[in-house]
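[audit] Reproducing an earlier prediction to check determinism. Same input, same settings, fresh worker. If the C-alpha cells differ from the archived copy the diff job will pick it up downstream; this log only records the rerun itself.
[audit] input (159 residues):
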Amino acid sequence: MDHVVIRKLEHLTKSAASPALGFAVETRDRPGPAHKNGAFPNDTVWVQLHGGLMVAKARIQLCWIGEYSHINEIRGRTRGSALHDLLGFWSGRPRYGYAAVASLQHEAWVEPFWAGPRTYGYEWVLLDDKKRAGWLEKKAPPRSADDLAAAFAEWKRNS
C-alpha cells in the first residue's frame, strides 16, 4: 500500500543529503484514513507539500495507531526526531482524539513533481488501487506553482 503524507514547507526537516522527517503523523478528532486502515512495515510513503508538490519518498518502519487523551502523548512518540521539536507542527492539533504515528526509514528526496487532487485538510491519504493513479501521476502545475517550487528549492539550499 502507498500513502501520501501532506506537510507544510515549514514542517519539513532534513539532513545534508536527505529528508529527516522521522515520522508520518495523523491526528484528528475522529478516526482518519490511517487510523481506520493502518500502515504496515515497508509500505511506501510519499511526501507532498501543501499545494501539490511531491518532494520525498520513504518507507514505514513501524506504525502505532490509537486514541490519545492529550496531544503530548503523540508528540512524545516522536521524541529524538526533528519533528518533535517543531512546535508549529504540534500547535492547533486536536488536544485529544485519534492518531497514527509511523516511523520512517529510507527517506530520500525525489525530483519534485506536481500530483494529487485537493486534500480537503487531510494530512495522510491511503492510496488504494482506485486512488493511486490520481495521486501519483504527474500533472500540470497550478497557478501558484512557481512560488511553492521556488520556496522549496530555496529551503532545501538554505536549511
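[audit] rerun output stored. Observation attached for the diff report: The first strand starts at residue 2 and ends at 7.
[audit] end
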